[in-house]
Amino acid sequence: MNIDWDKLYRAYDWAKEWQVLLAGLLVFLAAVIFAFAIIRSAKLRSQVRPETKNRSDLRLEPGSASSPPTSGPSVSTAASPEFLSILEQLRSLIRSALGSLPQTSEKLGEKENSPAFFLCQRILHLRLEQLPPPAGPAAQQGFSALLTQLNLLRAHLKKDASSAELSEILVQINASARNLVAALTPAAERRRQAETR
User: Fold this and answer.
1) Statement: the pTM of the whole predicted model exceeds 0.70
2) At what angle do helices 137-158 and 163-184 cross, to 10 degrees?
């Protein structure tokens, strides 16, 4: 096999002269392929059914993840942002109080110096009973359950309950507040929040 060195040198010289253009074309081709891949993956993600998204989110309550999102009455029971922010503040205080409770089943000891007692007092000072009840039967039922549990917490604090009893009631209050937020938030808003977290 004979190699025509003249043609090989000419091809090398041509590539050497046009290397900037060739590199630019290769970069442009790679960018086009990458853009098509991004667009295609976005289309595929948008075609995923919302209930499949909810099922894969483990933070949602088991009952709400399997039920399809509803429209109509749940949208009309949406609460004000202030009410929802108070419920989120309540849940944050509950998590802090649960974290500061002693691990044993002993009593809190000195109430004045106990961080858990202080946080429980802050929970009671949110004055949820002074807020207007939300609209909708599910939301009203959840709100009354939450107020009952807050009164139970107040009674537990007065009788110097053990940390295990306080922990149990705080978990119940947290669950009621979470259910109330779910009842007050429209399904579309819940999906948006789940996607942004």
Assistant:
1) no
2) 160
Q: Spell out the domain ranges in the chain.
A: 5-47, 76-196
Q: Cα separation of 76 and 61, whole Å?
A: 22
Is 77 in contact with 138 (CB distance < 8 Å)?
A: yes
Decide if 96 contacts 119 (C-beta within 8 A).
yes
pLDDT digits (tens, 9 = 90+) for 97-147: 888 877 655 555 555 667 877 888 888 888 777 777 777 787 888 888 888
Q: Is 109 left (phi over 0), alpha (psi -120 to 50) or beta?
A: left
Query: Residue 50 is encoded by which pair of tokens?
Result: 């919302």
C-alpha dist (Å) from residue 13 to 8, 17, 18, 36, 55: 9, 6, 9, 34, 61
Nearest in space to 177 (alpha carbons), one of 59, 89, 67, 80: 89
